[in-house]
């Protein structure tokens, strides 16, 4: 972001505003890289903002980001703007605008935005629910190697696709994509693999592998894995 901010520093934004925005961008990127829930990332951003050495308005941070996005059109910056817009940091919360921003970033090929867009379509956030479009964007994200996109796509196959029909589910594809996400260290995917091995869904039933994946997920504080392990041992 350094190459795009010099003009803003000289014009109307102080170095503190630029520095704070850069730190918030890093917090957001780090949260996405570790597949943290949005509220966890938001809390970390708010805590950092409140602890900053100087009083700076949220609006100044958001306005600077908006100008940078207009100038560089970089997905990482667009994603942060969409995130802040959704949760009302420095601007009024506007889920429809957040959807549009994520859509733009997804069209640019960003896998994080593609996964977010699938989530927005699936949960009717800023748009009408469209499970087919959710599947399409989850798949694009998954095929680029983004673990959350892979896990979301795996769940799609596990539950039977757009109509959520377990009778029409595809256990083998679910197992394949959960394995991909698990290999990256995504705890929720590890917990799901534990379940698939336990039940023999999409793979041979293997209690030892089920225990192994449950325990891996539990090490990352995954509650579903803890419950699954308790049921196995019951």
From TrEMBL:
Name the domain of life: Eukaryota
Q: Which UniProt keywords apply?
A: Repeat
On whether Repeat is a keyword of this UniProt record, the answer is yes
Q: Does the keyword Repeat apply?
A: yes
Q: Which residues form a coiled coil?
A: none
State the protein's name: 13737_t:CDS:1
Report the Pfam families cross-referenced here: Sel1 (PF08238)
The record's InterPro entries line, in alphabetical order, gives: Chitin_Synth_Reg (IPR051726), Sel1-like (IPR006597), TPR-like_helical_dom_sf (IPR011990)
Lineage of origin: Eukaryota, Fungi, Fungi incertae sedis, Mucoromycota, Glomeromycotina
């Amino acid at each position: 972001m350094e190459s795009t901010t010099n003009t803003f520093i000289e014009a109307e934004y102080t170095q503190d505003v630029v520095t704070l925005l850069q730190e918030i961008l890093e917090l957001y990127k780090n949260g996405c890289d570790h597949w943290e829930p949005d509220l966890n990332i938001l809390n970390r951003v708010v805590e950092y903002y409140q602890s900053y050495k100087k009083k700076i308005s949220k609006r100044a941070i958001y306005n600077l980001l908006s100008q940078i996005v207009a100038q560089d059109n970089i997905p990482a910056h667009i994603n942060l703007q969409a995130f802040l817009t959704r949760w009302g940091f420095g601007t009024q919360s506007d889920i429809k605008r957040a959807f549009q921003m994520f859509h733009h970033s997804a069209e640019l090929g960003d896998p994080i935005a593609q996964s977010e867009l699938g989530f927005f379509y699936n949960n009717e956030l800023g748009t009408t629910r469209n499970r087919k479009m959710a599947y399409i964007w989850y798949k694009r994200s998954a095929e680029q190697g983004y673990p959350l996109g892979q896990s979301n796509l795996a769940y799609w196959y596990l539950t039977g696709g757009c109509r959520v029909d377990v009778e029409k589910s595809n256990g083998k594809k679910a197992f394949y994509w959960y394995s991909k996400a698990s290999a990256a260290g995504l705890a929720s995917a590890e917990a799901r693999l534990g379940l698939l091995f336990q039940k023999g869904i999409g793979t041979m039933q293997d209690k030892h592998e089920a225990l192994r994946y449950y325990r891996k997920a539990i090490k990352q504080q995954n509650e579903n894995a803890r419950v699954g392990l308790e049921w196995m041992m019951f």
